[in-house]
Amino acid sequence: MDPLTFANAFQANFAPYSDSYNAVRMSKYMLNKFEFFGIPSPLRKQLTSAFIAENGLPAPEQLKETVKLIWQKPQRELHYAIMEIASRKVFLNYPKGIGLYEFMITTNSWWDTVDFIAANLVGAWLLKHKEETQIITLRFMQSGNIWLQRTALLFQLKYRANTDHELLFNYILQLKDSKEFFIRKAIGWSLREFSKTDPEKVIEFTNSTDLSPLSRREALKIILKNKK
């Protein structure tokens, strides 16, 4: 199936399950930034699985074009579904995948897609292309785009013991004075996640760094809870 046919069939697969009441509620939750079908997550995943079972996955060499076509359709559930498809292992070896992820991060940007892409696409891809990590994340940091910068902070969320804490701390130091809520929140979230692996390093870093109250509170949430 060519990318355009796939994208249109993918959209048509969800359309009959639209729910106008849910659509209004879901759009409102996202500050009315996006249009929704009104399909809850469990049903969306069932519909995606059924579509793939019947039609197959996009060919790896057609993934980029297919994702871009779907990403520019209005309904947000389509974005969720195709980014979940793109996170499958079969696609993570694609050598030019990072360019697609950057497009997804910077187009129709909001936390609901960016956070998934950061951890499940960018993070997973960089584990397979470790030599690219410094170059790509530094470019994200220098972009001035808060969503790319948030990705540079969050891509290691699932790394646990493999976390490059020096890189993480370096990026936090560069962004700690940002007034952007989504940057301050990401700083705290990344540190909180790393605290599950190495709480002492997180304590030492937060004690020696002038973080915003939001970042500090989020960073120490698990550590302080465990001390009670």
Description of the molecule:
The protein is mainly α and 228 residues long. The protein contains 14 helices and no strands. The chain has helices at 3-14, 20-29, 41-55, 63-71, 76-86, 97-106, 111-128, 133-142, 146-154, 165-175, 181-195, 199-208, 213-219, 221-227. Helix 4 (63-71) runs parallel beside helix 6 and helix 5 runs parallel beside helix 7 (111-128). The longest helix has 18 residues, at 111-128. It is globular and about 55 Å long. The N and C termini lie far apart (57 Å). The model has no long low-confidence stretch (mean pLDDT 96).
Total count of strands? 0
Largest sheet: none
What is the typical, i.e. mean, pLDDT?
96
Our count of helices gives 14
* Helix content bin: 55-70%
Taken as a percent bin, the fraction of beta residues is: under 5%
The ordered string of helix (H) and strand (E) elements is HHHHHHHHHHHHHH
Overall geometry? globular
Structural class assignment: mainly alpha
Radius of gyration: 19 Å
Kindly report how far apart the N and C termini lie: 57 Å
Q: Ranges with pLDDT <50 over ≥5 residues?
A: none
In short:
The protein is an all-alpha fold and 228 residues long. The protein is 68% helix and 0% strand. It has 14 helices and no strands.
Task: For this entry, give a set of tags.
mainly alpha, 14 helices
Please outline the helices and strands.
Blueprint: H1 3-14, H2 20-29, H3 41-55, H4 63-71, H5 76-86, H6 97-106, H7 111-128, H8 133-142, H9 146-154, H10 165-175, H11 181-195, H12 199-208, H13 213-219, H14 221-227
